[in-house]
Design a protein that fits this description.
This protein is of the alpha/beta class and 172 residues long. It contains 8 helices and 5 strands; from the N terminus they run βαβαααββαααβα. The chain has a 5-stranded parallel beta sheet. α2 (32-40) crosses α4 (53-69).
C-alpha cells in the first residue's frame, strides 16, 4: 500500500493536482481538510471559531494518521499548515509514503491567492502589500517543515497538468 502525500502552501494547487493525479493513476484521493470538515460537520473556519486551533490541529493529526494507516493506495492532499504541527512532518518519510512538496514562489502564490481572496478569509481584509508580506513570512516559517518532503515539484510557470506529469515521472 502506498500513500502519496501532496503538501505546500495554500494556492500551490494541492487539491486540484491531487484530483487530477487521482484520475491519471486510478488511486483514490482524499483532501485532509475535507475529511476534517466531514468528521465534525463544520467548515474549517467554523472549527477555528467554535473550537479553536488546538482542537483543529489535534483532529488534523488524528485523521492524517488514520489515512496513513488506511488499507490500500491513497493520494492525500494536506492543508497548508498540516506539516507544521503535531510533528506531522515526521510522517512524510514513513514506510510506504511518497511525499511531494508543491513548491511555489511568493509571486506565484500571490497571483493565485489575490485572484481568489473570497475563498480565503484569512487574506480577505489585507491589501496587496500586506498579503504579499503575509505569504512571504508564512512561506519562510513553514519551509523547514515543507522541505521534509521526499520530493519537490516546482509549480511556478506550470499548468496543473504539467505538475501532474512531473509527479507521474517521480512515481514511475
Amino acid at each position: 500500500m502506498k500513500k502519496i502525500i501532496l503538501l505546500g502552501y495554500m494556492g500551490s494547487g494541492k487539491s486540484t493536482i491531487a484530483n487530477r493525479l487521482s484520475k491519471s493513476t486510478g488511486i483514490p484521493f482524499v483532501d485532509l481538510d475535507k475529511s476534517i470538515e466531514e468528521r465534525v460537520n463544520l467548515s474549517i473556519n467554523e472549527i477555528f471559531e467554535q473550537k479553536g486551533e488546538i482542537y483543529f490541529r489535534k483532529l488534523e493529526h488524528e485523521i492524517f494518521v488514520e489515512l496513513l494507516k488506511a488499507p490500500g493506495n491513497l493520494i492525500i492532499s494536506l492543508g497548508g499548515g498540516a506539516p507544521c504541527y503535531s510533528n506531522n512532518h515526521e510522517l512524510l518519510n514513513g514506510d510506504h509514503v511518497i511525499s511531494i512538496y508543491l513548491k511555489a514562489s511568493v509571486d506565484t502564490l500571490f497571483e493565485r491567492l489575490a485572484s481568489n481572496v473570497s475563498k480565503r478569509p484569512i487574506l480577505a481584509a489585507m491589501n496587496e502589500d500586506e498579503m504579499r508580506e503575509f505569504i512571504a513570512k508564512h512561506l519562510f516559517d513553514r519551509s523547514f517543515y515543507y522541505n521534509h518532503a521526499q520530493y519537490k515539484v516546482s509549480v511556478d510557470h506550470k499548468t496543473k497538468d504539467q505538475a501532474v506529469e512531473d509527479i507521474l515521472e517521480i512515481l514511475a
